[in-house]
Structure to design on (553 residues):
């Protein structure tokens, strides 16, 4: 079969990636914290699901100010997660099951406990001073400029000892590295090679769109040297190896995504783009006051990305991760149609062109945990915002309501393995409360039920491996203005795949355009199989299905 030349020959085009948040995945020793041996013990589970890659959120040595996104030693494992031997064992055991391990590369910043920063702050003349971003106070005192931290407050902290401010775009315990310094870049590349030598399958790159920042011009994302650095990194590290790389880029546009993932450019395999996430945020309060869900907007954004990266570049596909609300809570219907809506969301996403990412627990329909008080939260972002928003006059109840919708911890509760104590996650006291719905929603129940969300994910993951049209077919959207129906086709050669989904809890009847009508083989559906699309179709609540047909040429 003739495949589009721009997207030929990458093994990860047919793979589905599973994100493990180690702290919450599986605890092997009863200390309440998930760990590497815990992950290794669940490889059979992931293999059964059809997963070929695991993206591990950070497991490096860390004071855990931001759950490991603050690294104090890039070449050591945090003791609570295990040892390097445990890591090597995980990689080997995963490989023997055809699963690769992708590490989270957090190199925009380190922990303030990293030896580089300890030396950097010791003196203005330290050899490491220029590893970070130091500036004199503004004239008349105060921070050098108005840049703010993602976790609230100024992005600058005054270090008394040397009388200068250092930059931290996240917590004050996450000082930003100075990528303009070639020594910094060189040390990072060496570290990356050290991990590549250990047999990892690639990197997910934390806020990688920040590394070209030019703080004196107030430029944080997409700085002038960003793509030079990525090309240099590619040449110095993974470029010669067959690995997968995905950049976390909140600022990405279809245009910049082509720079990151264009085939000829030798940068990354793909990026995570967040337009479909941030379209729901408030202009001033961001995610802490979200806007009502708008399917027309969502379709236009996802469609725009499908069209833009059709010939070159590559899309990532995801609904959730450890920073975002649970997909079914955000876009589905947890109260009325938890199973139907979770399957619908999976169907729509996994049949698009790109590489799908599943966030742990999504495959069993885990929901945002309903927290009632701030004491249940652990996340630095939520705790900081709580303080700031209450100071600004918000009521504690209103804050908790917003946090339940979009707080990171509500989607970071332990993986629900069984109906046993603590959902089978730990024999000890979990580091964060288990969602109380684990009796009904857990992996054990899900795997034994042919009609479960889990089995629906398993089928979708398998379909991608066996149907090139899902991997490479040309995307075309329909019914763009319809408020409830998501409709698109994929075409490849003589084949045509029609995907139709009802994003609402209502029964929707509508006249379908000619191009969507016809009959074929039902590849997947969340009600009974549908083999034929008629002019007048009735969609049940959250119904979604895909029909494969020979196209009319
Ligand atoms: O996230 C980047 C990031 O911008 C998020 O913090 C985001 O702004 C926030 O969750 C939305 O309110 C990455 C990691 O995925 C995240 O877990 C880390 O906290 C952050 O970088 C710092 O390393
Ligand atoms: Ca443990």
């Amino acid at each position: 079969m003739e495949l589009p030349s721009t997207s030929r020959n990458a093994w990860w085009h047919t793979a589905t990636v599973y994100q493990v948040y180690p702290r919450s995945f599986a605890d092997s020793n009863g200390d309440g914290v998930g760990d590497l041996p815990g992950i290794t013990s669940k490889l059979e589970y992931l293999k059964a699901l059809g997963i070929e890659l695991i993206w591990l959120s950070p497991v490096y040595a860390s004071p855990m100010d931001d759950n490991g996104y603050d690294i104090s030693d890039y070449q050591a494992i945090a003791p609570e997660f295990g040892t390097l031997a445990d890591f090597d064992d995980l990689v080997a055991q995963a490989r023997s099951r055809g699963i690769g391990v992708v590490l989270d590369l957090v190199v925009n910043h380190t922990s303030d406990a990293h030896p580089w920063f300890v030396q950097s702050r010791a003196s203005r003349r330290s050899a490491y001073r220029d590893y970070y971003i130091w500036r004199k106070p503004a004239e008349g005192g105060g921070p050098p400029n108005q840049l703010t931290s993602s976790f609230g407050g100024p992005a600058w902290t005054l270090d008394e000892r040397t009388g200068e401010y250092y930059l931290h775009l996240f917590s004050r315990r996450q000082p930003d590295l100075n990528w303009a310094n070639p020594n910094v870049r060189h040390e990072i590349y060496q570290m990356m090679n050290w991990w590549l030598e250990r047999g990892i399958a690639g990197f997910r790159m934390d806020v990688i769109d920040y590394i070209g920042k030019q703080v004196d011009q107030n430029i944080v994302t997409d700085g002038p040297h960003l793509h030079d650095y990525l090309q240099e990194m590619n040449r110095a590290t993974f470029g010669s190896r067959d690995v997968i790389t995905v950049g976390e880029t909140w600022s990405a546009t279809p245009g910049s995504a082509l720079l990151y993932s264009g085939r000829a450019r030798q940068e990354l395999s793909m990026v995570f783009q967040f337009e479909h996430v941030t379209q729901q945020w408030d202009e001033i309060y961001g995610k802490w006051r979200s806007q009502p869900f708008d399917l027309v907007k969502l379709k236009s954004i996802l469609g725009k990305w499908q069209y833009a990266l059709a010939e070159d570049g590559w899309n990532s596909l995801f609904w959730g991760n450890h920073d975002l609300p649970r997909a079914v809570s955000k876009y589905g219907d947890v109260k009325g149609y938890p199973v139907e809506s979770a399957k619908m969301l999976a169907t729509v996403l996994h049949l698009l062109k790109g590489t799908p990412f599943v966030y742990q627990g999504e495959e069993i329909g885990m929901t945002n945990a309903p927290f009632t008080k701030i004491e249940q939260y652990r996340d630095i972002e939520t705790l900081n915002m709580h303080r700031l928003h209450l100071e600004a006059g918000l009521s504690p109840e209103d804050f908790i309501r917003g946090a339940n919708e979009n707080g990171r911890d509500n989607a970071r509760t332990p993986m629900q393995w069984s109906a046993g104590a603590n959902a089978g996650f730990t024999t000890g006291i979990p580091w964060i409360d288990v969602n109380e719905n684990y009796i009904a929603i857990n992996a054990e129940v899900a795997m034994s039920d042919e009609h479960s969300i889990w089995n629906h994910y398993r089928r979708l993951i398998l379909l991608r491996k066996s149907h090139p049209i899902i991997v490479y077919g040309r995307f075309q959207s329909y019914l763009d203005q319809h408020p409830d129906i998501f409709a698109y086709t994929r075409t490849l050669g003589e084949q045509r795949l029609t995907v139709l989904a009802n994003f609402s809890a209502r029964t929707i009847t509508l006249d379908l355009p000619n191009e969507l009508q016809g009959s074929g083989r039902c590849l997947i559906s969340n009600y009974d199989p549908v083999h034929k699309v008629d002019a007048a179709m009735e969609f049940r609540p959250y119904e979604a299905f895909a029909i494969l047909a020979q196209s009319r040429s």
In short: The first strand starts at residue 17 and ends at 20.
